[in-house]
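Methods — Computational structure assignment.
A single polypeptide chain was analysed. Its primary sequence is given first, followed by the predicted tertiary structure written as structure tokens.
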Amino acid sequence: MKTYLPKEADIKNNRKWYLVDAENTSPGRVATLCATLLRGKHKATFTPHLDTGDCVAIVNAEKIALKGNKLENKKYYTHSGKPGELKTKTAKVMLEQTPEKVLFLAIKGMLPNNKHKKDILKRLKIYAGAEHDQAAQKPEAIKIDAFSIKKS
């Protein structure tokens, strides 16, 4: 019995779009769901060495819920590589300036570090507000509740 491997043409023709509403949801919950959809682990044809995932659009990134003292205590670091160039920002500042980047970094951290990571992240679109540009793709809406994921 031979193992079935999906062909590249089959993968590209069968990509679906999902619309995830991140309002009042923790970044970790959104990131785990999106990483699963982007990699294609929810499909029966999932193969680890092939990029079989779907496309994801996230709306309401500015309305994510950080619990506890994470707004003040969680820090994001960037470094240019030069001595003394380490910059830190709190989660509160990141949400005010670029709320999309908080979710992007959470999802990026949940993807494997391999040659597909860059291509997977190209299929991720994050919007701060409720408006999005993916209406032509007819995305399937997914609502994340506190205890379950619902397809609408």
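Note: Residues 85 and 131 are 36 Å apart (CA to CA).
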